[in-house]
């Protein structure tokens, strides 16, 4: 549905997009994950022809995207990272205005606007001016403005920044619902939990380049980390620690503040091995929990730095 | 036309700020109207202008009675006791502007072909007095003329002759003294002052809309949709022009309400043409301001500087003749100066021939040059701004 090949965008010396290539398939929720400044927004702006780029090609719906490709733009919805609404218009009027850029029929638009208001749950705020909305409500208005005209393809650039967890979940559910109705979605975020939760395929970006892509399972399979085990220990000495590190499957062990952070490779019985060891050495321990790797770990392993900064 | 409609909505949402200017403007205009109409009553309408005179006659003859009736056409008699002090006071307090005294034996002197004069005491520089002087001169010169040519006339016959002779020639004499009806008139002050209100309203309204639409995020968001930049910009311009036209019509409309009479003068069309040229100029300036400024908070300051500044130095509030040359030189770099110049010249027009109109058209042409310059600059600035994205 979207086909991007070797996109290069420079801001003077800075290469914001460095031969970026990606493909979005129809009907999926495509996640674009990367830390601040990795070029997610730049990529979206270039794909939408809002920014000129130095090299590369962009096709949407099988046609070359251009600033005047109005038939393509008509089928696309965009929610920008920066809230873009008119201060002079109320919630309702804003949604109606942006919807009106796509749909002329008044009656049809009225239904669509109502639906969008309901979708982002701004029913009680329809007469409010943007100034009177909290940051989270403003974000929701921004979303409503982008999706009211029922596009086939929606770009959402970090739509949930500053939205509280409850509303965020509602929005994510809403996006999944849209997707079930057949809408293709491109979703950027630096919250890996969100991306993990809803995206069927994910591209991880850093410094304008794609550093990994695939489903979340595929991404996690790419790295050596299998499991993260955290154990609360009451006392452990250096010798015991180094013995622990030599156990099969254990990749690293750190001891900070009576907590053992153990990383193990792939395999199913890592936790058992660790517990056996602690019991044999008669090391007292409290709470234990184990986690599967997250996208953050994927990012960390590939780039050597945390995704969150 | 969603963008066009939105622009109009933004204008409407900002009506309060605009309305404040209109309100101040109308209030001041009404004040000017009241004061200027007050002193206009003597200088403007020819039929009403009557001098208040104290008519003191030390004798009562048919001839002096005839004179009195003749004089009554152009003067209101105020009776003041014939004492020097009271007459002085009456002059000082403008109860009368002319004290006229026919000395004893005056009639006889005239009939005998003598040169005795009527005594007068006047308030200096009073326009109405001139008419009285003319009346006095005319009546008695004519009387002397008849007496010399026809010495056998009785006083009654002479009085009758004079009455017939002087009857009906009033309009002719009045025309001799006609000056432009709009000189120093309410309409001139109004149109001068209009430049202040108009520039305030237009710069506020138009640049607000421009700034809103020049916000990069909103621009980008709009261009995600299937609307072409050209059409969007045209719609904005169209809305701005409509706003400018409405503002101009409204302000001129107030002038009509306050002083409908001035719309019958031949000067009015020129005032209107000048105002239209000025509106075009300020509209163009507002585009430039809208393209240069990025945020609304800076706007009211800039708007004040751009409207009050030129108004002060160009003679909107204080007539140009009271401003010194350096100030006027600086002012001549503002369109307001040329607008006020043209207005002042238009107000004085009595003959609408090419020679008199040329300076007016020159000013208008300079206004149009300003318009083109501002428009060109704002195109350049607007383009640069978009290229920087
Ligand atoms: N107009 C611009 N001029 C110069 N550099 C820019 C401009 N816009 C973005 N950049 C740079 O391009 C790089 C990519 O920016 P971009 O906004 O695409 O990042 P992002 O992934 O969207 O980040 P975030 O998560 O913070 O939104 C950054 O280094 C940024 O500084
Ligand atoms: Mg971004």
Structural features, described:
Chain B: It is a multi-pass membrane protein. The complex is a heterodimer of chains A (309) and B (389). With 309 residues, chain A is of the alpha/beta class. Chain A folds into 2 domains: 2-220, Rossmann fold (3-Layer(aba) Sandwich), CATH 3.40.50.300; 225-292, Alpha-Beta Plaits, CATH 3.30.70. Chain A has helices at residues 40-47, 70-73, 91-100, 106-119, 135-147, 165-180, 192-198, 216-221, 238-246, 270-280, 295-303, and strands at 2-11, 14-24, 29-33, 55-60, 63-64, 76-79, 153-157, 184-189, 201-206, 209-214, 225-233, 250-256, 259-265, 285-291. In chain A, helix 3 packs across helix 4 (106-119), helix 3 (91-100) packs parallel to helix 5 (135-147) and helix 4 (106-119) runs antiparallel to helix 5 (135-147). The mean pLDDT of chain A is 88. Chain B contains 16 helices and 4 strands. Chain B has a 4-stranded mixed β-sheet. The longest helix of chain B has 34 residues, at 354-387. The relative contact order of chain B is 0.10. Mean pLDDT of chain B is 83; it is low at 40-48 and 169-178. The radius of gyration of chain B is 30 Å and the shape is elongated. The interface between A and B is medium-sized, with 28 and 21 residues. Residues 11, 14, 16, 34, 36-42, 81, 158, 190 of chain A line the site of adenosine-5'-triphosphate.
